[in-house]
Amino acid sequence: AKIDLEDLEKPYQEELCIECMNTEYIKTWKKQGVLFEDGTIQVGFKLETKSNTAKGTMYIGNKSRSELHKVATTVCSVEGLCAGVDPEEDTYPLTSSSQTSRFVLFKVESAFWGSPVLELSFKVGSRNYYYPLALPLGIWDFLVKPFKISVLPFQFKSEIEVSKKFDQVLEDLKQLNFSVVHCSKSSAELNCQFLESLVLLKISIEKNPKLEISAEDYRTGQTLQDSLKKLIS
After folding, report:
1. Which residues form the Clathrin adaptor alpha/beta/gamma-adaptin appendage Ig-like subdomain domain (predicted)?
2. pLDDT, tens digit, for every residue of 40-62?
């Protein structure tokens, strides 16, 4: 499969469709866009997720007048998310003004944090190139049966620690040009479920700067699924 590189010039696009089936959610999310581009190479990525699996098509275009030698593509995944590149060739050449594609397959095994990284390397003449590119894929792209998460990635000994972390997360969101509105700090609201949702919101806003949602919508979230449903509603 190939795609005209010019088709990927447009800003990163997302198309979202959600179906409700027997209280379980199957989500199909299509994304495409340019991950990286310079005078030598252009890397495009098209992603489709459904339930607990995802298939990404990676397009690598040689913009230079030289042949790229020993092109290698691997995926460094995160715990809880299986990933692999198909076909699994060790290295391959890429002639001038040509393009190749590779499939990247993902499967969620458990709740995970962070995003996988595409590692692209090649050689031009005697010079080696290496590009670690974060892929636009996170836990919010999958919506399946609720994951059982009993604790946050961090733990608190007192409400004071929760309050401090709460302030830190809000400040992080502010740095991302995102404001949480209608949000007071009464003890009833300073709970781990709400804070977990804010952390998840912070991760999501890093991927989608245009996301707009009131913190009021998160106050009743009891599970990660509830939080995710709010993020994509």
Report:
1. 32-125
2. 888 888 888 777 788 888 889 99
Q: Which two tokens stand for residue 32?
A: 């495409």
Q: Is the dihedral of CA 216, 166, 204, 206 positive or negative?
A: positive
Handedness of CA 45, 230, 81, 54 (dihedral sign): negative
Domain limits, the chain? 5-141, 159-232
- CATH superfamily assigned to domain 5-141: Gamma-adaptin ear (GAE) domain (2.60.40.1230)
Single-letter code of the amino acid located at 24: E
Q: What's the pTM value of the predicted model, to 2 decimals?
A: 0.50
Contacts of residue 50, defined as CB under 8 A and 6 or more positions apart, other chains included, come to 26, 27, 28
**Would you give the distance in Å from CA 40 to the centre of its chain?**
25
What is the distance of C-alpha 181 from the center of its chain?
25
Phi first, then psi: give them for residue 106, nearest 5 degrees: -130, 150
Helix, strand or coil for residue 217? helix
Distance in angstroms (rounded) separating the CA atoms of residues 45 and 57: 6
